[in-house]
Amino acid sequence: FLVMSSPSLFISWVGLELNTLAFLPILLSKKNKLTSESSIKYFLTQTLASVIVIVGGLIMLVLQMELSMMVILFGLAIKLGAAPFHSWLVTVAESLAWVPLFILLTVQKLNPLFMIWSFSQINSNFFHLIVFSSLVVGSLVGLAQTSTRALITFSSISHVGWFLTGMAFSLETGLLYFLIYSVVLLAPVLLLESTNVSHINQLPLIQVKLQNQSILFFSLLSLGGLPPFLGFLPKWVI
């Protein structure tokens, strides 16, 4: 709410920091010892991105506006996990439980999206580079993954390209895409958590009712944006 309602870059930055600190305890889990490593990676990356955003704000005071907007966009793209600044997101996602992963791929993207819309040049060449590379990297690198967490993460990187494309038209279009994406992502995440599937080769071995298996495959097709599923609607709108 602080980020959404603030016209000031500094207050929005404070909101980003509070959000990062609040998310760190969610990352930490006693059951999985790898989460401490991923939480440190997350914290360091977010801190670096925050420093870059603040430097962008300081450049605005001293030098020209365009360079400042580009530096702010650079910092926010790292926070968003957009390609080509996505490698931290994949390493953090691999060791997370499903629910924290869902939060990381949805709620945690809201603040950078609002700030990109408010404080950076949306139709600059650098912005188009981030959109294009997110779409390409998310789609092509995802093909080489066998881990379901990595697949969902690369799918999310590809969707970030779509969020930003929506934002370039209007804030409402970007948010509509984001909300539908969050709903569509929830179904496969909950199904994969309940069946405890962490690799693709386990999918045929799911010992559940056939109906559940078809729901999982339908929800994955929806996440891919195939008609006539819900995931196709926001792509059609854009």
TrEMBL record:
<feature type="domain" description="NADH:quinone oxidoreductase/Mrp antiporter transmembrane">
    <location>
        <begin position="6"/>
        <end position="238"/>
    </location>
</feature>
<keyword id="KW-0679">Respiratory chain</keyword>
<comment type="function">
    <text>Core subunit of the mitochondrial membrane respiratory chain NADH dehydrogenase (Complex I) that is believed to belong to the minimal assembly required for catalysis. Complex I functions in the transfer of electrons from NADH to the respiratory chain. The immediate electron acceptor for the enzyme is believed to be ubiquinone.</text>
</comment>
<keyword id="KW-0813">Transport</keyword>
<feature type="transmembrane region" description="Helical">
    <location>
        <begin position="40"/>
        <end position="63"/>
    </location>
</feature>
<keyword id="KW-1133">Transmembrane helix</keyword>
<feature type="transmembrane region" description="Helical">
    <location>
        <begin position="151"/>
        <end position="169"/>
    </location>
</feature>
<dbReference type="InterPro" id="IPR050175">
    <property type="entry name" value="Complex_I_Subunit_2"/>
</dbReference>
<keyword id="KW-0812">Transmembrane</keyword>
<comment type="similarity">
    <text>Belongs to the complex I subunit 2 family.</text>
</comment>
<keyword id="KW-1278">Translocase</keyword>
<keyword id="KW-0496">Mitochondrion</keyword>
<keyword id="KW-0830">Ubiquinone</keyword>
<feature type="transmembrane region" description="Helical">
    <location>
        <begin position="69"/>
        <end position="89"/>
    </location>
</feature>
<keyword id="KW-0472">Membrane</keyword>
<keyword id="KW-0520">NAD</keyword>
<feature type="transmembrane region" description="Helical">
    <location>
        <begin position="214"/>
        <end position="233"/>
    </location>
</feature>
<feature type="transmembrane region" description="Helical">
    <location>
        <begin position="6"/>
        <end position="28"/>
    </location>
</feature>
<keyword id="KW-0999">Mitochondrion inner membrane</keyword>
<feature type="transmembrane region" description="Helical">
    <location>
        <begin position="96"/>
        <end position="120"/>
    </location>
</feature>
<dbReference type="Pfam" id="PF00361">
    <property type="entry name" value="Proton_antipo_M"/>
</dbReference>
<dbReference type="InterPro" id="IPR001750">
    <property type="entry name" value="ND/Mrp_TM"/>
</dbReference>
<feature type="transmembrane region" description="Helical">
    <location>
        <begin position="126"/>
        <end position="144"/>
    </location>
</feature>
<dbReference type="GO" id="GO:0005743">
    <property type="term" value="C:mitochondrial inner membrane"/>
</dbReference>
<feature type="transmembrane region" description="Helical">
    <location>
        <begin position="175"/>
        <end position="193"/>
    </location>
</feature>
<dbReference type="GO" id="GO:0008137">
    <property type="term" value="F:NADH dehydrogenase (ubiquinone) activity"/>
</dbReference>
<dbReference type="GO" id="GO:0006120">
    <property type="term" value="P:mitochondrial electron transport, NADH to ubiquinone"/>
</dbReference>
<keyword id="KW-0249">Electron transport</keyword>
<dbReference type="InterPro" id="IPR003917">
    <property type="entry name" value="NADH_UbQ_OxRdtase_chain2"/>
</dbReference>
<comment type="function">
    <text>Core subunit of the mitochondrial membrane respiratory chain NADH dehydrogenase (Complex I) which catalyzes electron transfer from NADH through the respiratory chain, using ubiquinone as an electron acceptor. Essential for the catalytic activity and assembly of complex I.</text>
</comment>
<protein>
    <recommendedName>
        <fullName>NADH-ubiquinone oxidoreductase chain 2</fullName>
        <ecNumber>7.1.1.2</ecNumber>
    </recommendedName>
</protein>
